[in-house]
Amino acid sequence: MNFKSLEVFYWVVNLNSFNKAAVKLHTTQPAVSQRVASLEEEMGIKALERGPRTIKLTAKGRVLYDYAERFMALRTEMMLKVAEDDSYSGVIRLGTAETIVQTWLAKFLERAHQKYPNLSIDIVVDITPTLREALKGGELDMAFVLGPQQDGELVEKELCKYELNFFSSPSLKVSKEPLSKQALTEHPIITFPKRTYPYTFLRQELATPEHGAPRIFTNCSLSTIVRMAEDGFGLCVVPRLAVSKEVEQGRLTVREAELKLRDLTFAVAYSRGSDEPIKMALATLACEIASVATAECHPAHRTK
Q: Where would I find the HTH lysR-type domain in this sequence (predicted)?
């Protein structure tokens, strides 16, 4: 028996899929099946009950899984205490929300390359719900997403908080500020997609029995949202830090409103596994970069 077989078995159970485990471990489904079969044969047990759509642990399989989990945790501890930075190699598939792309992602990638020169990072940009599904499905290794959530499947740590504001072109004629809920609905509102906090909150707070739901236009692209607001299409709701340049240049202005928006909190999330040491190291680096980035922009962050 070797550690690789235990790792394969661990991921098959965690992801409830031989195919997803193969994607996660950068191998093929037949190779994963062979690893598990060989492990069962060597141990002289049947560890998994294979159904058409589900995989269930047998009584012996549960015991084996507990040991596999402990072996992986011990390996992580060893790597953190012993391994040198330049010993980390391979590919990390990183998902990120576009707000992070527009603020400090480039600095993070630069520092990560300096610190871990043998490591490659592939970037996927999408909305948080999609990125979380990809993490749990083994298609991503880690992600910068809205959170943290109480989710036993993922390790999560808070990265940063962004204040949300209403913005518009200075040329957009609005009612007296602070804008009432009724005044907000006089213009289209542009914000993030339907499964995100800004959209769900605005729809809930601004809908009325008389006029129905507010006019909310959504887009996955932060740059598109900002461009529509700059062109005078309506009000946009985005993090202040992400549009500090547009505000400073006078292309957007903050619109005070009676409706208070809570901060967007972002977290770094990743799954456990044999590559956990490098993911922990990258998570720590991301927290450092995010902290510096938000601190440097704090004065502008509070100025109209």
A: 1-58
